[in-house]
Write a structure and sequence with these properties.
The chain has 397 residues and is an alpha/beta fold. Helix content is 29%, strand content 30%. Helix 2 packs across helix 4, helix 9 runs parallel beside helix 10 and helix 10 crosses helix 11.
Length: 397
């Protein structure tokens, strides 16, 4: 199959030669290859200014990132065969790192499958497609997953707002087999129900697995507050490690109802309290009631989704961290996390330090974590290194 060329301006190939996968629309020589001549999702051969082929990219002429490289060989297209090959490579990494089949199987660019996320829940897979090119390959993706994983069912959970920027609609549907409304998974030493159809993202967040495992070392006999608890990923693992009580804050009725089911699943009846509502309001209420906790877990959604949100997002993180520190008992532990890729780790460190100083606390960062190995970082794409968590000791001096 002969592919149309997409030409780059002089020296616009530098990032690609260094390993990056993205093309920006202002890097394309539109005199030689008008972007309007390409259809969303079309594959094209990327040519540098001197006429050297750099590989094959999926093109969307309507977005700022107008191309995503899928192969460094101009003869190799992204098709079912290549999908099977890349899935097998991704699977080998996860099987090396994890004993049980619960993990993120595909992490987009980092697995050389830009625009594709796959979370595995044993014999069920949940797929998220965020680019027009991957959407055109939906049938091939299903076939490749069936060949490599042999799942009982595949749920296509295309609810991300990113799809709208690609000109795609949002939908949720079963792509293969049968997928129950929710399924059990195991993380570390704890079981959970995950609401696949109606839950956030794919129904679960595997990325904090390492930090949650380490958190258990500190939890025995401790009173724990889990802010933005979702379905209990942090807090129930704290109970599993011997925490004396768990208080959860979340605004979602579905999340808290599933959390209650997860409490029952792990037989921790009468050890938790749920507070439904706005996190800031609930935390202020706990402060007014003079409540104190040995561990406060602060794992909010991304406050900074775009670069223009940085200032407002940093203020939100600062406010939340100050409230969390106020709720800590003497020598308490704050676990402060951020999934905002536009918030550098050092900025989160500065926010926590500043929040502590503002209320007269001395803070020590005793451990730091990022995403697990099922979310590998592409070394040329810093956006793939998005997750950070700080274990912070708060002292009253």
């Amino acid at each position: 199959m002969s592919l149309a060329p997409i030409w780059l301006h002089a020296r616009a190939d530098r990032r690609l030669r260094m390993g990056h996968l993205w093309l920006y629309s202002n890097e394309v020589d539109t005199q030689r290859s008008p972007l309007a001549s390409f259809q969303p999702g079309q594959q094209a051969v990327v040519m540098n200014h001197q006429g050297k082929a750099l590989g094959v990219a999926i093109i969307n002429p309507n977005t700022l990132i107008c191309g995503r490289l899928v192969s460094h060989d101009a003869r190799i297209l992204l098709n079912k065969s290549l999908l099977v090959h890349r899935l097998n490579i991704a699977l080998k990494l996860r099987q090396t790192c994890f004993d049980k089949p619960y993990y993120r199987l595909v992490y987009g660019d980092s697995d050389l499958l830009p625009g594709l996320i796959v979370d595995r829940f044993d014999d069920i897979c949940v797929v998220q497609i965020t680019t027009a090119g991957m959407e055109l390959l939906r049938s091939d993706i299903m076939d490749a997953l069936v060949k490599v994983i042999r799942p009982r069912g595949v749920l296509i959970k295309n609810t991300s707002a990113v799809r709208e920027m690609e000109g795609l609609t949002r939908y949720v549907e079963v792509g293969y087999g049968v997928v129950p409304e929710r399924i059990t998974l195991q993380e570390n030493n704890t079981l959970f129900w995950a609401p696949l159809h109606e839950g956030q993202k794919t129904g679960w967040f595997y990325d904090h697995r390492l930090a949650r495992h380490k958190m258990q070392r500190y939890a025995q006999g401790q009173r724990v507050l889990d802010v933005f608890s979702y379905i209990g990923g942090w807090g129930i693992q704290a109970l599993k490690a011997g925490a004396s009580q768990l208080v959860n804050i979340d605004s979602s009725e579905l999340a808290l109802a599933t959390l209650d089911d997860n409490i029952q699943l792990n037989q921790f009846k009468d050890k938790h309290v749920n507070l439904k509502g706005n996190a800031v309001d609930q935390m202020n209420g706990l402060i007014a009631a003079k409540e104190k906790f040995d561990i406060v877990i602060l794992d909010p959604p991304a406050f900074i989704k775009r670069r223009k949100d940085v200032n407002a997002g940093e203020r939100a993180y600062r406010n939340m961290n100050e409230l969390a520190i106020r709720l800590l008992a003497k020598e308490g532990l704050l676990i402060s996390a951020s999934c905002s890729m536009h918030l550098p780790r050092q900025s989160l460190v500065d926010i926590v330090r500043g929040a502590g100083r503002h209320i007269g606390r001395f803070t020590q960062i005793i451990e730091q974590y990022g995403q697990g190995p099922d979310h590998p970082v592409h070394p040329a794409i810093p956006e793939t290194d998005y997750l950070k968590s700080l274990f912070v000791r708060s002292l009253q001096l």
